[in-house]
Amino acid sequence: MNSLVSIIIPTYNRSQLISETLDSVLAQSYPNWECIIVDDHSTDHTVEIIEKHIKKDSRFSVEHRPSRKSK
């Protein structure tokens, strides 16, 4: 049985590197994975690049870190 592998990638303002990182995940031979990218309020084009990868492959998803912690 193939178990689901969860890949979690934290990121902040890494537009110059995030595409290469996500392409590396895509190049893996193991097919049963999900990749959750956690963005820490990037101010560059990081999120736009992530969204392009999500359109290519639904195993990618993006979450945005909350602005404030709950009490």
Structure in words:
The chain is an alpha/beta fold and 71 residues long. The protein is 28% helix and 27% strand. It is built from two helices and three strands; from the N terminus they run βαβαβ. It has a three-stranded parallel beta sheet with strand order 1-2-3, covered by helices on one side. The termini are far apart. 15% of the residues are buried. The model has no long low-confidence stretch (mean pLDDT 93).
What characteristics describe this protein?
single chain, 71 residues, alpha/beta, 3-stranded parallel β-sheet, 3 strands, 28% helix, 27% strand, globular
Rg, nearest Å: 13 Å
* β-sheet strand percentage: 25-35%
- Report the sheet with the most strands, covering strand number, pairing sense and barrel closure: 3 strands, parallel
Q: Give the topology string: H per helix, E per strand.
A: EHEHE
Q: Could you say which overall geometry the principal axes of the C-alpha atoms support? A: globular
Question: Gap between N and C termini, in Å?
Answer: 41 Å
Number of strands: 3
**Biggest β-sheet: strands ordered side by side in the sheet:** 1-2-3
Low-confidence stretches: none
Counted by DSSP, the helix tally is: 2
Average predicted confidence as pLDDT: 93
Fraction of helical residues: 25-40%
What structural class results from the helix and strand content? alpha/beta
Please outline what is shown here.
The chain is α/β, with parallel strands linked by helices. The chain is 28% helix and 27% strand. It has a 3-stranded parallel beta sheet, covered by helices on one side.
